[in-house]
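Lay summary. Proteins are chains of building blocks that fold into shapes, and those shapes determine what they do. In this project we predict the shape from the chain. Here is one chain we studied, written as its sequence of building blocks.
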Amino acid sequence: MPIIPQITAALAGRSVFPTPLDDVHFTLDTSGVAGVFGGEEAVSAMATVHVYKYRKWLGWYNSPGSYEIAKRYGRLATSKFYDGLFPGVHTDPATLFELDGMPGPKFRAAHSGTVIDETSQPAALLMKECSDMTGQAVQGRKTRPIGVTVAELRYTPKHEEYPAQFRTLAPVYASVPIVVSVAACIMCALVYDWYSFAMILLGIVVSGISCWVIGSGTFLFTHPEPAEGSPPGDGILTSDQEIVVLRGEEGAVNSITRGRFSLRFRSEPHYEDIGRCSVLLMIQFVAQLLLIPQGTLFGQLMFVISLGVSWAYNLWLSSINKEQIQRDILMKEVLRRPKLTKYILGTRTSTVVFVLLLLQPEDPNKMINSLLPNDTRAWRKWKDAIVSQIKDEKGFEFDRSHWDDASFTEGDRQLLSVLFQDAQDAYAGFKKHNMASEYKSECT
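And here is the predicted shape, written in a compact code that computers can read:
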């Protein structure tokens, strides 16, 4: 006699009340929902466990997607056993939880000459924060508007910062799947459907333990400490449509260009506890796949209802913009609300002049050539005149003598006239910025 029917007979008994749907000869095919249904949402919801306060304590519900969660986070564990069970490329926890790994824009320092072709994720987050801002328009010619945001970094983060977790309505909403899962478990016990009871209870326990273990990592922000005597870290982050001017100490600037969010676990570097949780999740998947079909139709419905409500909660968690959460943490908790002032300039040339006036770089020639690679005779004359004015620090006035040169063609003279007018428009915008800014430039 097969084993499962023997166990079923042994567990059978008189229920507290007649089992609903007991006379219906129909069985739900739960193989499609046990472990696989809602996998992407469950993985995405698990990624919020380190940024929401109390989130790691609120996983006690029969969550779907156990197979997908085990497959994704099991790759953290490093041993031959776990490598065979969860094949794939090993990565660090921050990248796996999408807290790191986003490439940032190019950075060029104004005084030290440092150039970083690809900065870290905080720079990318700051660039997106600035691109979403509304800027003040600087008067002048308009061809291809570019946003220039002046970021005044008044606070230098410590080498290691521990940002506070966000408070949300997650604890309130988490009570819904928890209550539904426990209620479904109790209902199965009342009708003596021990298979469904055990599988729902298994899902509650494994999900709660996994959420607690995976959420036990410490969320922190780190950046390298600058060398003593380093010059000011002023510089620019550049993209096609945005430029961010960073002004502050070297430590404040490199927290953006080379800082990173990370997770620190007690079990690193092998992450055995996460590996064990992943094994538990796989056991849950296999057990529910095999044993839920042995339950009654009523018990199967309770199981599906608990999964459905839990999936809806995971869907809500996964729908929250995690990138926006990181931006808020960076701006409020790490950088302590830096002052951001955005301007919109109408042309690339006026934008470059505006940036040079703001930064007063050590080598203006190098910066102007990197931002404007144009290298015709007319462009070289214009660049030389701009650099000369910036170095002299005696105002920013141009007249016909700067472009009315008989050795230039009529087209070159017209081009120079337009370019010098762009430069004067940028200077007018720069003077207005200085009047409102707490940082007074040496050029005024």
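What the prediction tells us: DSSP finds 16 helices and ten strands in the chain.
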